[in-house]
Design brief:
The protein is of the alpha/beta class. Helix content is 34%, strand content 17%. Helix 1 packs across helix 6, helix 3 crosses helix 4 and helix 4 packs across helix 5. The radius of gyration is 18 Å and the shape is globular. The relative contact order is 0.13. The chain binds thiamine diphosphate (TPP) and magnesium ion (MG). Thiamine diphosphate (TPP) binds next to helix 3.
């Protein structure tokens, strides 16, 4: 594939590993594109960043495609690794990008405790409603009654409202957008990167291969139009009943505050202990 050596985003991309692993219509490329534009507009030096991922299609977004120091860790453990990195390198921007299964399933406890500690990580949870990479098993965010490869008669569990959960756990910044909302998502990524404490964006993203085709949306555009149709802003949603919100995706900023950050607290304790 022909690369563009002088493109403004080349400094953030490992162009030598193209073409990429994403299926046609996947939202992963959109998220990578927006994130690289954010880094460029904020004039962030790639050397400031350490990206940490788990295992899954969403974890391919930073690794290998983002040209920064990257830890591609085990499934469910991205936040645990990122916590260690942030404790040892508090001045670095430590960014976690991983899937709904990774961060809210096997890694769910790491997620809520990182939010409770308010550790200065920036976390993008790519919610495609499914275990995408492994072929479409049910995840903790799969909607009720949806058929997946492990729920062939329909999902009998209700999904996590994962952004609400992280906000309740104690994060400084939480928002929810989708790959349809590219400008809002871009602004939100900038806000998240500017926080000192734990910042979290749930990014609803299309996965035509493992999710869309199971719910009658065979290509990425069908799913993007669905995000457009079903999204509703937080302020508007306040006036609707829970029954009216049943099929909706509430988008916007859930929380933006400044509580003490975990590694700042650790440093104070260490200084006090050292006398
Ligand atoms: C400990 C462990 N359990 C299970 C797996 C198999 N596995 C790899 S990725 C994955 C789920 C991926 O789903 P998600 O995190 O939502 O990412 P997506 O592919 O949808 O982006 C699973 C179950 C694994 N690699 N390691
Ligand atoms: Mg997933």
């Amino acid at each position: 594939m022909q690369t563009q050596p002088h493109h403004k985003l080349t400094k953030y991309l490992r162009t030598d590993v193209l073409p990429n692993a994403f299926c046609a219509g996947c939202g992963g490329g959109t998220i990578l594109n927006i994130f690289c534009n954010v880094l460029e507009e904020m004039e962030i030096d790639p050397n400031e960043i350490i990206a940490v991922t788990g295992i899954g299609c969403s974890s391919w977004i930073p690794s290998p495609y983002l040209k920064v120091d990257t830890l591609h860790t085990t499934h469910g453990r991205a936040i645990a690794f990122a916590t260690g990195v942030k404790v040892m390198k508090p001045k670095k921007r430590v960014i976690v990008i991983a899937g709904d299964g990774d961060l809210s399933g096997i890694g769910g406890n790491h997620l809520i405790h990182a939010a409770r500690r308010n550790i200065g990580l920036t976390v993008f949870l790519v919610n495609n409603y499914i275990y995408g990479m492994t072929g479409g098993q049910v995840s903790p965010t799969t909607p009720y009654s949806v058929k997946s490869s492990t729920t062939p008669y329909g999902n009998v569990e209700r999904p996590f409202e994962i952004a609400e959960l992280v906000a309740a756990a104690g994060a400084d910044y939480v928002s929810r957008w989708s790959t349809y909302h590219i400008f809002q998502l871009k602004k939100s990524m900038k806000e998240a990167l500017n926080k000192n404490g734990f910042s979290f964006i749930e990014i609803t993203s299309q996965c035509p291969t493992s999710y869309g085709r199971r719910v009658g949306m065979r290509n990425g555009i069908d799913q993007l139009l669905d995000f457009k149709e079903k999204s509703i802003g937080i302020k508007k949603a306040e006036h609707l009943s829970s029954a009216e919100l049943e099929e909706k995706m509430i988008v916007g900023k859930l929380i933006d505050r400044n509580r003490p950050e975990f590694t700042d607290g650790l440093r104070r304790v260490n200084e006090a202990a050292a006398g």
